[in-house]
Design goal:
71% of the residues lie in helices and 0% in strands. By secondary structure, it is an all-alpha fold. The chain has a single domain (36-238), classed as Heme Oxygenase, Chain A. The N and C termini lie far apart (48 Å). The model is unreliable at 1-8 (pLDDT under 50). It binds fe (ii) ion (2 copies). One fe (ii) ion is lined by residues 62, 89, 153, 184, 187.
């Protein structure tokens, strides 16, 4: 386990904890439904375009999050780190936009695509949580902002890892997806190191509770969004002329 600057161990929850009971069962359902959804979506060009659009919107949301008002005035070292992180997310958005255009899709840039209603609801719930927890930390709202960023990056690495494993190395989209996955793995470590540096030992309990709540919100939407993805994949396979 990584040590805090003062020698205190960080909560192990900076790494996504193993799930038990109902949450574990939900995670298995989400994984199974999403695998089936990916097979359906890859069965049509329109389906692949939808997948690329979902990833493009996710990258643009990361760009917006890195410029959020929640971040306040970060220290100079963090401003430099966030500048590099933002450049990565912008590059990812450009790569997904190019792949979308290559498949006949329209990639509105910059920052003009909107997440779906479920994702917007999740983001709103995370922001409410960030405001509630901001005063629990000496570094203020920066901590909830990075805790949310950590969980979002961990979720995206799980999504990309599943997708890469399903399509295999010979698929034309594999090099793009695995390249982005490597960067997102690095972003997870960046968020972990940032929290390790900024959260005081006396605040570890608050950070653990905050991470639990962020992940519970993420899980609450998992089954619904997986089912919507699956149904969209089936519809686009059966009626491929649809946009
Ligand atoms: Fe990214
Ligand atoms: Fe990222």
């Amino acid at each position: 386990m990584r040590l805090h600057a003062d020698g205190w161990p960080l909560p192990a929850r900076l790494t996504a904890p193993p799930l038990r009971g109902l949450p574990a069962m939900q995670a298995r359902w989400v994984d199974g439904i999403k695998r089936a959804a990916l097979r359906q979506l890859h069965a049509s060009v329109a389906g692949e375009r939808l997948l690329l659009r979902i990833y493009l919107i996710g990258e643009e949301s990361s760009e917006i999050a890195l410029q959020s008002d929640l971040l306040g005035q970060p220290p100079a070292w963090l401003v430099r780190q966030m500048g590099k992180h933002l450049a990565d997310e912008r590059r990812h958005a450009s790569l997904f936009a190019a792949a979308l255009t290559a498949r006949g899709g329209i990639a509105p840039m910059p920052l003009s695509a909107r997440p779906d209603a479920l994702t917007l609801r999740k983001i709103a719930q995370w922001r409410t949580l960030a405001h509630r927890y901001g005063t629990n930390f000496s570094a203020g709202h920066l901590i909830p902002a990075f805790a949310i960023g950590l969980c979002a990056e961990q979720t995206f690495t799980r999504v990309l890892r599943r997708h890469c494993a399903l399509i295999g190395t010979v698929h034309p989209l594999y090099p793009l997806l695995v390249g982005v996955l490597n960067d997102e793995d690095r972003h997870v470590r960046l968020c972990q190191h940032t929290l390790a540096r900024l959260v005081q030992p006396s605040e570890h309990g608050s950070l653990a509770s905050l991470l639990d709540e962020i992940r519970a919100i993420d899980r609450a939407w998992g089954v619904s969004s997986a089912l919507i993805m699956y149904l969209a994949g089936v519809a686009l396979r059966l009626w491929p002329a649809r946009p």
